[in-house]
Specification:
alpha/beta, Rossmann fold, 3-stranded antiparallel beta sheet
Length: about 200
């Protein structure tokens, strides 16, 4: 019986690394599957900050993932990274693929946005997944405490308002500013997130 598994965590918890590992392991056993991502910092591939990457199908806002699976039939599995950015309808399409096509789906995503709120895709995956697995690689705040928040840092200050989706990276403090604001993300514990303290 196929399963919809949702693995989630903060930045730095190994989501993309695990997604790539699962895809590699299944493909090595001569199983045919699709690797998908949305808004990866490197474009049409899944990338890990450890330096590994693989080409992936880019999930656009208008992509019907169920139809994509039908077009690639026969299919054994799908590995979906950055599902926090998928629409609720696309998440439901993943469930349909599991239920109607008996295809295992391994989905990975962030749990909350920079405001500490669930992403729409994350919320829907938590509601419908057969298995919900927090990732056990614990990222740490600069103070050493367990990191619980993905803080958005604009020009070296933590911000709490703005568009939900702004692609940035985890470049260090004082990164060179180009074309206006420098946007990056930093992992913080709840206390330092609320205080807006970056420890620099």
């Amino acid at each position: 019986m196929a399963t919809l598994r949702f693995s989630f965590g903060t930045m730095g918890s190994g989501k993309s690394t695990l997604a790539l590992q699962i895809h590699h392991n299944l493909a090595a056993r001569h199983m045919y599957g699709l690797l998908l991502t949305k808004l990866d910092r490197e474009g049409e591939q899944v990338t890990s900050r450890l330096g590994v990457a693989a080409p992936a199908i880019q999930v656009t806002d208008d992509l019907d993932i169920h139809q994509l699976a039908i077009q690639h039939w026969p299919l054994h599995y799908m590995v979906c990274d950055e599902v926090q950015f998928y629409s609720p309808e696309q998440c439901d399409q993943l469930a349909t693929i599991v239920d109607d096509m008996e295809v295992d789906v391994y989905a990975f995503g962030l749990i909350t946005d920079f405001r500490g709120h669930l992403f729409e895709g994350t919320k829907r995956m938590l509601e419908i997944a057969d298995e919900r697995e927090p990732l056990h690689v614990e990222a740490r705040c600069w103070c050493g405490a367990r990191a619980t928040h993905n803080a958005r840092v604009v020009n070296d200050f933590v911000v709490y308002e703005g568009e939900t989706v702004v692609v940035g990276d985890t470049a260090g403090p004082g990164a060179q500013k180009m074309f206006g604001d420098t946007v990056r993300y930093e992992l913080l514990c709840r206390r330092h997130y609320n205080l807006g303290e970056l420890g620099v």
